[in-house]
């Protein structure tokens, strides 16, 4: 079972809770996906007073572990403040740390990310940093105390799937013991299966499910794909060959050609 | 039959009309002192069931299809039937295909057709979707006109009065939205701006698709435009945030740079009442029929909900078909 910050997760799918047609469909999709963790974004409007408690109670009713995020934060200070607010509101020290460097591409600001990760780790947070596939940044994040890394495989919401498989492979190779969760950029169940086949520990996605014509069906499909990819990885994949090899043994032939 | 309608938002006013039209003696009671300051007052007024289908379920299209006809028949002159134009910036042009794959009732338009539909947008967008069957109205004018029409027909209005002080009615229609205090209801905050941009004319609502900050601009009289609207899971009705305002203004500016010169005439915040499935309900309990959960579809779905409520009041044996259907669908899903 996947172990992150001392917590064992029964499923290797983490699902975001934004952009669904309705909370009812969100709840059905989460159930269909068998996800073990849901991410929630904290809007300032939700904190304090009578904010979004109805939505929050719906999330709670799913009885899953909640991973709040710092979506939309563009500076270290903003991300740290939001993380602290999220700890109060959601009652967890888990935080998916996003420090956005570019408003349009939502590319992580890796410099701010490392700094914010260090601050939050020192403050006792279990930090899940949303990062790129850069190995040096990954090392810095681990040095800052992170025990999990969440590399993108393509920009958030792009649905492109793994655009740089080589980089993902080398990341897996460099950090064989660190839980690696592919976050952002997955568009299809086959993308999820692909990164799981590469040996990634889990995937986190949102838009591909929330914006599907049938989010519940798509959530179920992603759940199966994650399981399939994981099982394939554990079962030892056949490496590609350059020549054809018949799968039917040629019994009864006198001479092999 | 004497009927008390609680709440003078779009649900209450349309219900009052349907009931009065079937011969009920209707009184509308509203705790506020005038028509304004509720979710309906902040609405966009788009009668756009085909576009809404992009994110809403099928009942929104089924129930909203006849809304433009209802408003046009009840308030001649208030409805503009000019369709909806959906555009995207070149970078987000893929969003148009995504939107198209979720909707129906449109035709694809190119740069020339966009220029014919909206001359002020000539040369600004290469591709778009045009939904010819859609319509729009100005919610505030429509509500005021409907109030006048109801008053003409003998409907009594009591503003600034608590409904608990009203007695002697055979039936009650609860149209109080969030104030109804239904356990399943939640608030979805929406922020909007009213811009006055004298250099721009639009004949129909324009929707700008964007992966994160979709915007609509609904034209109002005299070069006024409503720019909206955010969707935030929150009951807070506090003032619009700087971020939301920047997002809305950025999007408006990318529809046309002349919006950079617009005067911001008003900022508004409304809290939409919504059930977990984001679909409206008409429910009967004892002497009371409740209409609620109109979410972002007040003007679009209120006529159908009002008819169902009136059906329940006048023919209690007949169930409210659509409301029941939507319930069952969700429960069996």
UniProtKB/TrEMBL annotation, chain A:
InterPro entries: Aldolase_TIM, Thiazole_synthase_ThiG, ThiG. The active site is at residue 96. It catalyses: [ThiS sulfur-carrier protein]-C-terminal-Gly-aminoethanethioate + 2-iminoacetate + 1-deoxy-D-xylulose 5-phosphate = [ThiS sulfur-carrier protein]-C-terminal Gly-Gly + 2-[(2R,5Z)-2-carboxy-4-methylthiazol-5(2H)-ylidene]ethyl phosphate + 2 H2O + H(+). GO terms for cellular component: cytoplasm. Its main location: cytoplasm. Residues 4-249 form the Thiazole synthase ThiG domain. Keywords: Cytoplasm, Schiff base, Thiamine biosynthesis, Transferase. It is found in: Cytoplasm. Pathway: Cofactor biosynthesis; thiamine diphosphate biosynthesis. 1-deoxy-D-xylulose 5-phosphate binds at residues 157, 184-185, 206-207. Homotetramer. Forms heterodimers with either ThiH or ThiS. This is Thiazole synthase. It comes from Allomesorhizobium camelthorni.
From TrEMBL, chain B:
GO terms for biological process: thiamine biosynthetic process; thiamine diphosphate biosynthetic process. It comes from the Bacteria. It holds the Pfam family DAO. This is Glycine oxidase ThiO. PANTHER family: GLYCINE OXIDASE, SARCOSINE DEHYDROGENASE-RELATED. InterPro entries: FAD-dep_OxRdtase (IPR006076), FAD/NAD-bd_sf (IPR036188), Gly_oxidase_ThiO (IPR012727). It is an enzyme of class 1 (oxidoreductase).
């Amino acid at each position: 079972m996947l172990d992150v910050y001392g917590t064992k997760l029964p499923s290797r799918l983490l699902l975001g809770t934004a952009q669904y047609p309705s909370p009812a469909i969100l709840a059905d999709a989460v159930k269909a996906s068998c996800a073990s963790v849901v991410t929630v974004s904290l809007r300032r409007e939700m904190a304090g007073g009578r904010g979004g408690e109805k939505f929050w109670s719906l999330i709670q009713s799913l009885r899953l572990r909640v991973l709040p995020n710092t979506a939309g934060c563009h500076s270290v200070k903003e991300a740290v403040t939001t993380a602290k607010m999220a700890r109060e509101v959601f009652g967890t020290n888990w935080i998916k740390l996003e420090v956005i460097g570019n408003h349009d591409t939502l590319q992580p600001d890796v410099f701010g990310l490392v700094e914010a990760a260090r601050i939050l780790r020192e403050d006792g947070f279990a930090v899940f940093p949303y990062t790129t596939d850069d190995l040096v940044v990954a090392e810095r994040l681990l040095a800052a105390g992170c025990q999990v890394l969440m590399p993108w495989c393509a920009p958030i919401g792009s649905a492109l799937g793994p655009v740089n498989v080589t980089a993902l492979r080398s990341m897996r190779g460099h950090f064989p013991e660190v839980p690696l969760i592919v976050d952002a950029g997955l568009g299809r169940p086959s993308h999820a299966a692909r990164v799981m086949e590469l040996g990634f520990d889990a995937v986190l996605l949102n838009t591909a499910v929330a914006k599907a014509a049938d989010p519940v069906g798509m959530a179920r499909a992603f759940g199966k794909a994650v399981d399939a990819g994981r099982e394939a990885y554990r079962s030892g994949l056949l490496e590609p060959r350059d020549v054809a090899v018949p799968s039917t043994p040629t019994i009864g032939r006198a001479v092999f050609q | 039959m004497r009927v008390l309608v609680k709440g003078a938002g779009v649900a209450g006013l349309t219900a009052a009309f349907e009931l009065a039209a079937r011969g009920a003696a209707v009184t509308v009671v509203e705790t506020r002192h005038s028509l304004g300051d509720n979710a309906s007052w902040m609405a966009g007024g788009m009668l756009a069931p085909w576009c809404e289908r992009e994110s809403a379920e099928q009942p929104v299209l089924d129930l909203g299809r006849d809304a433009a006809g209802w408003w046009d028949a009840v308030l001649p002159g208030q409805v503009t039937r000019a369709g909806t134009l959906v555009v995207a910036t070149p970078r987000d042009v893929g969003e148009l295909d995504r939107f198209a794959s979720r909707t129906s009732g449109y035709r694809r338009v190119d740069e020339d057709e966009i220029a014919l539909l909206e001359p002020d947008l000539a040369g600004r967008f290469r591709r778009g979707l045009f939904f010819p069957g859609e319509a729009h109205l100005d919610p505030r004018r429509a509500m005021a006109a409907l109030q006048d029409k109801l008053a003409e027909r003998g409907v009594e209005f009591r503003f600034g009065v608590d409904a608990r002080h009203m007695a002697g009615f055979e039936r009650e229609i609860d149209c109080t939205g969030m104030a109804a205090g239904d356990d399943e209801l939640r608030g979805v905050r929406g922020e909007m701006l009213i811009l006055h941009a004298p250099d721009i004319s639009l004949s129909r609502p324009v929707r700008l698709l964007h992966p994160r900050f979709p915007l609509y601009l609904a034209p109002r009289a005299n070069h006024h435009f409503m720019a909206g609207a955010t969707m935030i899971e929150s009951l807070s009705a506090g003032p619009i945030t700087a971020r939301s305002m920047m997002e809305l203004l950025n999007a408006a500016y990318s529809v046309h740079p002349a919006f950079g010169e617009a005067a911001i005439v008003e900022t508004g915040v409304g809290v939409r009442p919504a059930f977990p499935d984001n679909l409206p309900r008409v429910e009967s309990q004892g002497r009371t029929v409740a209409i609620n959960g109109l979410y972002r579809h007040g003007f679009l779905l209120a006529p159908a909900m009002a008819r169902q409520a009136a059906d329940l009041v006048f023919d209690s044996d007949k169930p409210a078909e659509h409301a029941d259907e939507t319930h069952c669908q969700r429960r069996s899903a």
